[in-house]
Records
---
Amino acid sequence: MIDLIIALIKVVGIWSFTLGVAAVMTWVERRGAALIQDRPGPNRAGLFGILQPVCDGIKLFTKENIVPEKADKVLFNLGPIMFAIPAFSAFAVIPFGDRIIIGGKEILLQISNIDIGFLYIVALGSLAVYGVIIGGWGSNNKYSILGGLRSTAQLISYEVPWGLALLGVVLVYGTFNLREIALAQQGTFLGILPNWGVFHQPLGFILFMVAAYAEANRVPFDLPEAESEIVSGYHTEYGSMKLGVYLFGEYVNITTLSALTVTFYFGSWHLPYINMASFLGDGTIIYGIASFLIFCLKVSFFLWLFVWVRWTVPRFRYDQVMKLGWKSLIPLALFNLFITTLFIQIKYYIGG
Amino acid sequence: MAKPVVEKKYSFLDSIYLFEILKGMVLTMRHFMFNFFASFRPGPHTIPTTWQYPEDRREISPIFRGEHMLMLDEQGRELCVGCGMCAKICPAKCITVEMAKVKEGEESKYAGKTHCKNFNIDLLRCIFCGFCEETCPKSAIELGQGYELSRFTKEECQLGKERLLKNYHWAKKNNKLKPKKVEAEQPKDKKE
């Protein structure tokens, strides 16, 4: 019973956390874009415009819910749901902190500590494409279906280097369990560097980041929604909260990908050179909160990186995206995998 | 003649994108940091290219042609004699003037022997060309600095005499009257 309550608290907590982050991100995106482009951006609602997401939410909720006459009603309504569910559920296996021990009971700061967390993430990543293609097809609109098709091709192409880059990390740490991967990043590597995935897998990290931007449909790979080419792509026909779910889902996706980057490559909740567990005491509440805050700090940097890159880089042409995906990223990912296995084998024979 | 297409040669560093992207990111970050700290500075208009409208207004040229006003002279007398020249020259035909003789005992209110009983400007028709101002023999009408001309009803767009005088008083109070055309007349005096 108590396990169920703890699990429920964690689920509700992390669900509202991701929603909150997504809401704040809409504001950060607009404000960041504005400041990069020498304008102030939304700065009226609340202090520095921080209440802008609330206003947007009220606006989207109170708007009329329009379903196009010729649209496939079932698929049209299913689209946003199919898009949002994988985005939210991918967060279930990501550890967002170490652990808290209360009265001899161990509470992991992770919704479910499953052994195949990695496979679960990759599977849900592939599932995200359904929301886009179903929305595009259900709208019965040329631009929407074009956006959906582009998204399918792009996501399938970039799923491969994304997964292969992550396999490198799995090879280094020898586990599919995300918590164990996070735990293994404690300490130092080669004496001077923090023992983070990015130093074990520099090439893998770059490949993962590039593929992650494509997975999240973000600039420079925002071909599915490319405003200047196909109006708004798969969500052209959507309005009111259905559009809101799509937009929110995108930011939740970004949050999940940032959290994954931190978990796999940037030492999750570990500070470099400092062993917090021995410093604050393993399992204390302060340690749990501190590890969560460090994780949030790292995630927020990667969230900002998504915004920063979006307003720096122009969109790729469609053939360039495909060329980059198939001719550059996949061979490099295979090469990275080969080098990683080679080093592991060498280490195995030398170190025994 | 069309420009010949030159295939750009990319070096190895260019072709792997990353360094070019990093250079671009440094550039955008410079802009971001500048504007980020500028937005914390007190006072309006800290981000140089944007005016935060209601608090922060643009400087308007002294010869701007905005909302009309009927002028008074130094003694506070109405300059308009109601001749109707402005109404005649107006290309949009938005001015209606009604002349009347100055009644006895009211000479202190009006500068001329006649005055305008009614003076109406239809803002919906006005094209702000400034011909009325140019043609007026007494310099009694001027286009002022007011530019917030949106109104809720059609009736409010009819500027009556009261409103036009109110505009003058507002401009005088806020020191927004046009500089007098003394400088322009000086060369004429020299010739004579």
Note: Residues 18-40 of chain B form the longest helix (23 residues).
---
Amino acid sequence: MSDWKKIAPLEDIPRLGSRVVEIEDGSIAVFRTGDDQVFAVRDACPHKNGPLSQGIVAGHTVTCPLHNWKIDLESGEALDPDEGCTNTYVAKVEEGMVYLQL
Amino acid sequence: MKERLVLVGNGMAGVRTLEELLKLAPEEYDITVFGAEPYPNYNRIMLSPVLAGEKTIDEIILNDREWYESNGITLHTGDPVVEIDRINRRVVSASGMEVSYDRLLLATGSNPFIIPVPGSDLPGVIGFRDIADVDAMVEAAKTGKKAVVIGGGLLGLEAANGLMINGMDVTVVHLMDILMERQLDKPAAGMLRKSLEEKGMKFLMEAQTAEVLGEDHVTGLRFADDAQGRASVVGGRKPGTTEIEADLVVMAVGIRPAMDLAQKAGLYCERGVVVNDTMQTYDPRIYAVGECVQHRGQCYGLVAPLFEQAKVAANHLAKMGIARYEGSVTSTKLKVTGIDLFSAGEFNEEDGDETLVLQDPAQNMYKKLVVRDNRIKGAVMFGDTMDGTWYFQLLREGTDISAFRSTILFGQHDLGDAGHGDETRVAALSSDAEICGCNGVTKGDIIDAIQTKGLFTLDDVRAHTKASASCGSCTGLVEAILSSTVGEGYEAKPSKKPVCGCTEHSHDDVIRAIAEHELKDMPSVFSFLEWNTPDGCATCRPALNYYLLARWPEDYKDDAQSRFINERAHGNIQKDGTYSVVPRMFGGLCTPSDLRAIADVCDKYEVPEMKVTGGQRIDLFGVKKEDLPPLWKDLTDAGFVSGHAYGKAMRTVKTCAGKTWCRFGTQNSTGLGVKLEELTWGSWMPHKFKLAVSGCPRNCAEATIKDFGVVCVDSGYELHIGGNGGIKVRVTDLLCKVDTEEEVLEYCGAFTQMYREEAHYLERTAPWVERVGLGHIKERILEDEAERKALYERFKVGQKVAQVDPWKARAEGEAAHEFEPLKISA
């Protein structure tokens, strides 16, 4: 069973930006969208493993910095017409603190 | 309860409108569609390839039944609407079904025009309009031998070609003396006829059909005599013959808007159902799109205008109420395999027009441009149609061609694009030929995607195949493939292109609004210009961030989250997620201690690779992101600032040795290069911006392919602008010659500022200079001294803010969150 892990205060993640959390087998990109929701996906684009954390966030999507694939932050899936999916993690914000279920 | 929308006519225009509507307002309506044909929406312009056996019907279906279902649309096929009851707002179908509507969309299309001569209703006389006609032709070809196609226009020739492929002996009967007279002039039509005759097609020109012969099935045609009692047939046939045998007659003499239903319902119609610029009929609840429509006196039968109309109608059905349809200019391509032909605009010259012609009978090639006031009015091409899309774009945008008029007929590619050489004849390429060298996309991949996915626009093709989506140099080739695959009137670039999908506004609109309405932050732009997304997208945000910064350098707060990662991390992201670092070396000059410092940094941070760049700087590859701030600190301590090699910014000033050392040097080119770099470093630009200073006309610094280049001569300095050594090599234009270094700096600052203020984001100086014209730039910089000085002053104001070294700031802790990973704490 996975646990909630405390990550950082919400204000440490820039709005429409992201931070990287390193875990044993790779990195997780934690995004804060314009409406102050938080999403977490594996920091690798399904296309060529580009670091999604470095992309531009708009709405609930991020654009990969390498080849402009757009990834839905809720599902981890590439938007049409591209096809592919990256892992997602459950994230929540409680009393201004960001948690991930790992 | 949702409002009800009924679409009458299940064809391309109507369904496209639904697609656009679903994009804008998916939940607005309960939608019901009635179609007369028993099929879901198919690609009518692909009927010719179906007839020619190159495609099956399944392959040309655009929206299968599943699509209607998954979008919650009720579809009734094979059941035409026979009555519109406007008072009770309901439609009645042939099967007796009654459906009420709140909004009605008419897209009834058109009917083939059947010449009203005796016998025209005999079995064996058909049009060429739908799948049933194609079935009839294929069936006829199994038993009959001789086919006659009446009409030597686009549709008629495609029908004739298809019948010929099906094994019939085909004669095309045409009223005029030239084929496709609405699209071609005499020489091009003659070449077309010759090519088709070589394929085995026969022609009867200037022949007017008087009667279709036969009793229970067509057996032939009889032609009218002229006033002197002679058979009015001159071309291709012995005098005196006035009849011809036929087992099948295809009438392809034109189409008529299908407006019976609308007329019966009392809607105002002239040649078609009359609509205004919002695609609304005289009944405000009823909209109409497609071939049934008459707009500003015009009826359209090509697909591009229909799609533009669809967009507008959808916008109003979605109650957004901002789009207007203002008519279309169309272009044509004939879909007969092996024949390349293109026409657009008004191609028959009138008084005051000039005609440019390039003709080579041996290569079976003909190009004609009709020009008025240095703007293209029309184009006809046969044989080599590669540049058709380019000419069409120049025509639509009303571009002044005076600067390249002398070479325009040789095409856009007379200067050779990187990666394509002179390979311009798309039709001649095999299907495994690589079109997009960046993404490895072949001609076959593109054609396959266009056909199986039903693509019509360049953006569609880019999204699905990635062809031309990277460097863009193959855009012309991709457009040519698109137009030859889709055929007549694929959707060409609109002359006013929106910044992105978040808005209807163009770059120029945005630039103007930011200045005139003093919009000084991004939320103000979004709300003032009614952006349709809450926080833009990865395309518009960097553009807006630049425009705001360029216009309000002292007021606007740069938004890091609206910058591409390279400009946020101040390094160039590499494919493995590491960064490259280029320290600035003004004018390319360096000292032993500079080099030692760089070498020490490379040792300390284990930089895996170093390289000398084309711009005379040193590039350090493979730096981990978290190492960037400490590495920058070491470089900063050694006196370096950021080289901005990662940004849409002033990059480098390349210099040659100059007169300090070189025996040919006329001026101090390195010294001037350093001064120019000190003036311009740190400046954000619409795109990257490179300079060079050469000490003499031997031009070792290659100044004539830079955005701003200086070539020193004994008597002063030549200033060159708008060069590019990238995808498309472009040699600079000479702006002027000046006498002193001070003037070089002033002119450089003024030119740079003008580019910063006027160019679109991501537009290099080369296309910008071509777009606005050299004359426009000279007017403001050469002829108007006050204007030049004002531009230079504004540039210097911006530089006060811009010349803060981003590396030093980050080495001291700015934006630390960008570089540090988060730790899991519990």
Note: The mean pLDDT of chain B is 88.
---
Amino acid sequence: MHMTRPGQTRALIIGAGIAGLQAALDIANSGYEVVLVDRLPSVGGHMAQLSETFPTLDCSQCILTPRTVEVGHHPRIRLYTYSELTGLQGEAGAFTATIRRRAAYVRWDLCTGCGLCQSKCPSRVPAEFEGLLGERRAIYTLSPQAVPNKPVIDREHCRYFALGRCQVCERLCPVGAIDYEQRDQVVEEPVGAVIVATGYQLLPLARLPEYGGGAVPDVIDGLQFERLLSASGPTAGMVRRPSDGRVPKRVVFIQCAGSRDPERGQPYCSKFCCMYTAKHALLYRHRVHDGQAIVFYIDIRAAGKGYEEFVQRAMDEERVLYLRGKVSKVFRDGDQVMVWGTDTLSGRNVEVAADLVVLAPAALPDSSQRDLARVLGLTIGEDGFMEERDPQLAPVDTPRPGVFVAGAAAGPKDIPETVAQASAAAARVLSLFSRWEREAQVQVQADGRR
Amino acid sequence: MGADRDREGQLPVGQGREACAGTGRRIGVFICHCGSNIAGSVDVRRAAETVRGLRGVACATDYGYMCSDPGQALIRQSIAEQGLDGIVVAACSPSMHEATFRRAAEAAGLNPYRVEIANIREQCSWVHQEDREKATQKAIALIASLVEKVRGDDPLEPLGTPVTRRLLVIGGGIAGMTVALEVADAGYEVILVERGAELGGRLRQIRETYAALTPLAAPLQTLIERVREHPRIRVLLGSEVESASGYVGSFTVTVRPAAGANAPGGYRSEADPAGGTQHEVGAIVVATGYELIPLSRLGEYGGGRVADVVDALEFERLLAQEVPRRPSDGRVPRRVAFVQCAGSRDPEHGVPYCSKVCCLYTAKQALLYRQRVPDGEAVVFVIDVRTGGRRYEEFVQRAMEEGHVLYLRGKVAKVFRQGDQVIVWGVDTLAGRNVEVAADLVVLAAAVVPSAGAAELGRRLRATTDELGFFREAHPKLRPVESLTAGIFLAGAAQAPKDIAETVSQAEAAAAKVLGLFSRPELVQEPTVATVLQELCAGCGLCVSACPYEARSLNARLRVAEVNAALCQGCGACVVACPNKACVVRNWRPEQTLAMVGAVLGEVQ
């Protein structure tokens, strides 16, 4: 179809993790409108769960919240959290996006975010945001710093929805914002360009039984360990193991849990595990001075500015013990977790009795990605990630004109790379928008002469 | 959470609002509960009652969430109804919501610089949870001090500086060309300065990408042609930046012929040969790339001494022929040893970092060598195989399995010539044995270092480079393409070693920052900057050297210091340095500060 009108200078961004936030701010701060969609109740993505970031050990929340707050207040960013993209019709410059807003059972236009409902809700549920190591209520926000700071009711665990009575939140809400009758809403938004920034998830522990995943309570994944390290986490930043709350004196970190493993379906390297494991080991030693940190690795992949130096620091200053070798088995033994592996440098088998085992599971595309690719008409690679138009020369373009991709949606990436890609996708969009704007001006002038 | 606190969250809007006539200044105080965050340890109602009696305070109110829409409406309404000429919001840190409350006040017609935030959350309620009485007293003292500040605040107007919508790109490699095209396509003028004789940078020396093995010549040529033919891009080959002055939105850059250009028999510079030309630009992108550490600095690997020890870029050239031939005698090498981390990860070579790209290009070169010389043998010495990146792990596996490339994990101790072969002594750390490989050719993955002159360019631009010579980014996580100097951006390997995909992403990201800057009609700057009281200034110049932003200079004619408001960040270093008290930061005058201290000490009633 030949486009008769210059394109719509409005962008749709799917995913409000650090990639989506950065792209949204770059575009909105250049004067254009952004529609930002995330399936969770609030923005921030995985970065909001992290304690500190490598290699500078900046507090993740502290560097992220200025961005989330700016997005939350931005006059040109329309935020659809707790929402999903269900359709995209049209072509570059003239898309119509169909967005389904899930019922929050809370009228966000009335809610002031005072938090009273959450403190009084009688139904306690393991919190996904805390890696199930902490609790939330049936009416909840992801974190106290949530943007928007408005709760949702988890229907499945709400007593009113299950039993037909309770209504504590409704009675307490000072502004009458609880609405049990709320329904999902479908809205349509006209946009000219789309950025996919749906990020990653970790391979579920249950799929790593040989490492004790899912069976041994003191075998956790990297994101769970982030929550244990986090000052705002379930243990207020003290490392305590899930089974009995004891401070672990020996922690084993296992890298490549599922990654670089074609038999399991992830032949690729998950890229950021080497660095976060070095960070985990170092932070653990900061928290538990007499603790011992042991890392099993195949190759230490510290490629990035200041990364090699950071790993050296973990080894030299914090005496983190790096053992090169694969782990063959992890199992429970009394109140300890036994790790059997090989030290390929000495050629010996090793056995470590640990108090806690932290796995670095493979990074997978976000669970929503496959459906989303169908909606967007994009291709997914053999590894499950979004295909780029040209991985080297056009890394943020997709085969569909007007649709771009940023961050871990197109393969595991660390934060700086993700941020650079997000801005890159924003540049592709800004360049289109400014071209369309000039075309519109030319058309207006031509119409004026006519 | 106590029942007491819960009730406080429900205080009716507008509680305690009352007129207070005849005080001169009409200041409103708005105290936020922040749910229980503040109200849990501060008696907000008592605080409101107490500050209501302060000098200049017309009204004081508390509310559950001042930042919420109803809270902001309360502020706007009070300003309008009571004719307030200043407000103090006692709430969280100003870094959280100062902008929010200033916007709300402005919407009600109040000058936003007569809005102050008393931080009674992070600096009060959160740290004094155990003592409600003392926390309340401290909150009252903090509010009183900010009331004193507002009393002295001038209604300031933000400073607007115009933006020159033209970009200067330094470096004509893939990074620089990508930025230039994206910004020019968006409709802005670009000047691209390249000190060499041609565009294309390192990619001219590389035949195909790794992983996908995409040939680079054709796409590179297309890119170069698009740049050269673009109506809004002006390319200055054989040129370099001599000096730069100014600030974001308004730089003046002098470009002169590059050293080496215009020499007899050399290439011609496109810069004005007579002393250089000046260009007015609003932003600068540094895309100066990398080079490899010279072979001569890798003596232990035979670098510079043994003819058949080459670096990876030289091997790219050898591979470009139908069959690679070694430099010494033109023979086709039957066994090639690749030595990774030649200089990298080696603090003694001054390169403590990992060069990032070598693992992948070595796998590529080994695989391509095996394709060109099917009966040849490729041996790679490696410490760790670093293939972090999509499709990279799979590619190295392909080199190992399909290309039968032998990977030995270990460092190389020595490389030397023996007869017409090159002997490599190393350790296989997995077998725990010493190994000796008699190779026909040795390829060193020499460390990636900043391109020559990077540190000097950094000084000219006032954009900092690190101790290794790479340009320093504003924040390693969240601002990877911004330099520490506003308006100067970074792309590609000038910031740190990067592969093509990452370089293109970074270049596009730098373009986004430039486009964002150029989209604004003018740059709005905080007016809370330093000024000079000329009648007190002795022209001693101490403030000029104290200023970390180079915002100060001496006016030779008047013999007084002057401030460039566009560069000043209001840090106050000049105030401390000035012996005559002639330096003042607007709305942070000494008498204001003393009055604030007095209020905290309880001297104000």
Note: Chain B has 16 helices and 30 strands.
---
Amino acid sequence: MKIISASTLKASVVSMALATLLIGCATPQQGPMFDSTSKAIRAAQTAGALEHAPDEYRKANEIYRKAQAMQQHRRTERAQKLLELASAQASLAKAISDASEAEASLGYLYTDSTR
Amino acid sequence: MKNTFHLTSIALVLSAIAVSGCAPKQAWSPELEQAREAYQRASGNPLVTSLAITELDQAQKQLQAAEAAADYFKGRETIAHEATLAQLKALEAEQTARALQAKQSLKLAQAGTPLPQALPQTVPGTIQPFESLQPVMAAAAPEANQSMQLEETQPAAVSDSMQFSLQNNNAVSDDSTTLGSAETQQTELQKIASQLAALTDQIAQLQTKQMYSVGPFSQPDFLQPEFQQPEFQQSETQSSYELLSDESAQLDATTQLDLSPAAPSVAAVVSIDKIETRMEPVTPEPNNVLSIEPDSAEPVMAAALPAPDNNNPYEEALPSAEAPAVEADSRLRGELRSMNARPTSRGMALTLGERYFEAGSARLWNGRAARHLDNIAAVMVENPGLVIDVEAHTDNQGTKEHRNNLTKDRAIAIKSALVLRGVNGRRINTTGFGDSAPKATNDTSLGRLQNRRVEVVFPNVEGF
């Protein structure tokens, strides 16, 4: 009769515990709302939000991170609400940036034409 | 003992009645107040209503959702969340309009429209592209021309109707003083007038091709700076974000809704209406059908039901079926917009949400509907050529017969309320659409809420 050694048994227990821990801590899958909000934030950044609307951009990022944290705690409904806010903040940042960029271009054009 | 019991019961009942009477009709929320203010400011800005109509519509829907949440006493968190979203969307609409206006100016400039020699320095650090075109427009307009000639000696003589002050514009003053002889000035004026015509053509092309696929263009008053930086202070604007993230690490006490201080305020914009008006000879408003005695603008109260012989002088001008379109000047449009009316392809239209009615009934809540109805009645009494279509809609809940009856009754309820306020019933067409024309999906509660509505359309008021 084969006797399981103590070390083998210990290794098995540790492996099972680790597996259980990993399964429990697995990040819940992020839905399409995360993708769209992430895209909105990236679009704001591309539009120059870091320069023209830094506060709105920073706030959008913070809320997005908070939504990720909520999602990890499986508080999906709250995460969705935060994502809505983050998306709106990012859109506002983009709109401000677009306007500022266009006005700046107009200003340059004007300056060139009057030289 | 028995008497004491009775007295206690009566006292309890009376207390309950008093408490219920004092209870608010809607949950109060500072975020909702701010959202209303933001939407009012955006919807009252003609530039936003013409350039960012989609964004403004989204803000309106979001504000309706926030109002509905407050009406039904949802949790503070929900109300604050919806209201903050509405506020952000209203701000986005303003900024989108600002961006489109600047892009339009840029395209005009790139198309070769000559720019003036100096940028007016009215607000340091502020780019005001179209103020720089004021000399062009001023020169093309006869009355502006007069103003320019009178400028040096009589600055106050600049026409009030134009609200066109050139005295702060050093560049213009310099130009006008160096023009020299009358002949030179005439030649200059002709040249400028032709440039102006080209400019208006370009604007029209841009409107149709690029910017205004959503709807035609309503020209703002370019003489007044339309955009102000939103005045949200950090301390005033608490967001639902704050409420939502109460259990985790504190990030910031508030959501930053104030715009970047470095962001320049949006400049004045070109108004085709204004340009065209200025090119016409000055007449002291001879055919202004909308000019009325000041006291006639007062809302007619419910007690003033028109007599059967219809003594109301304004009702004499009841339009026939082929009545010409009312000349909806900017004042009338402004009044309608102040009631949150929006331009549509069928004319100006405003939406009365379900909250104006008792749930599932055609009974109007007096407190909520009265202000809107007073305003609509006042506008109709003020403008006898106006007719309206009252169109009631609902969601897909209940039987078809119930839905049809409900919408018909609601349309008639609005009509009756307006008739009670002195409007001739023949000027009001009512239709109950049932659920045949949904505005949003009936699969969600928010969509159904949006579908339960009454639309008041002013078909002979051109919204654009």
Note: The mean pLDDT of chain A is 83.
